[in-house]
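SEQUENCE-TO-STRUCTURE ENTRY
===========================
Question of interest: how does this chain fold, as expressed in C-alpha cells?
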Amino acid sequence: MKNLLIALSVSMLLFGCKDDPKKELTDEIPFEETDETLPDTIMATENDLDLQKQIDVEIRKKTLVEKEDERDELQDLIISKRFLRDEDLYTIDFKYPYLNENLKESYVNFNEYIAETYLDIAGVEAQILEDKELLCDTLRINKFREKRYVDYKVYNVNEKLVSVLFYKENFYSGTLHPSYTFDCLNFDLDRSVFMIYEDFFIEGSEEELRKILNEILVAKIESGEVYYDCWGISEEDFFEYKDNFVVDDKMVEYYFDDCVICPTYTGNFSVEIPLEELLPVLRRYNLNPLQL
C-alpha cells in the first residue's frame, strides 16, 4: 500500500511538470532498486538544469545585444545618448535614442517623452535604495550590487515610422538570473505623434490577433524549437501588452516581459508575426505604414 501511494504521488508530480509534455510515463518504476542512489541522481539533475539555465540566460543576452536593427542606416535621424552612474551600491547604465530636431522641430515630442519616461534617474535610485532597506543583513547588501541596464533597437518603415524596442536588464539582490522587461514605441515621423494598436489594427480585433499569435507560438513549441516550456498568452496579458510591438517592412514582433509567455531561462521573449498573416486584422487607411 505504501509503495502504491508513493508511485501515485510521483506520477502526479511528473504529469504536472511542463518540461516535456511529450514524454510518456510508465507504471514500471523500480523504486526498490533506485532508493539508495536517488538523492545523488536528483542532485546531479538539478545541477545540470541550473547550468543549462545559466547558459540559456547568456544566450538570451547575446541574442538581444547582437540582434540586427537599422541604427546605422538611421544615423542622421537617431542621436544615441547614454547615462551612466556607478555607485558603491548600484550601477545605472541607460542607452537611449533622441530624434534629430534639426531635421524637424516637432521631433521634440519624442525626445520629451523619452526624457520624462526613461530618464527618471532619481526615481530609479530611490527604488534601488528602498529595496535595499528591506534587507536587514548588511553583509548581504554589500555583497549584491543592484544593476539597471537599458539599451534599444530601432527600425524604420517606409521612412514614415520609427519603431523602437527598449530592453531592460535588471539584476536584483540575491537573484540567480537577471530579469528582463521590454517597452516598444512606434512614432509617426510625418505627424510627430506616437501610434498605438488601433492605428495599425482594426478596432476590436484583439482576440483575433491573440489567436494568430498563439498559433505561431504553439507551432514553435510543437516543432521542438527553443520555445520549450512556454505557453500561450492569456486574454488578460494580451490586453496589457497589445501596444508592445515593433514593426518593419516584413513583420510585427511582439515583446513580453519575463514569465508572461515563457520562463526566464528559456531565452524567449518575443513572437514574430509575418505581415501576410495579419491581413485579416490590419486596418486599411492611408496613415497605416503597414499597408500591403
About this structure: Confidence is low (pLDDT under 50) at residues 1-36, 136-142. The radius of gyration is 23 Å. The chain has nine helices and nine strands. The chain has two domains: 2-64, 65-278.
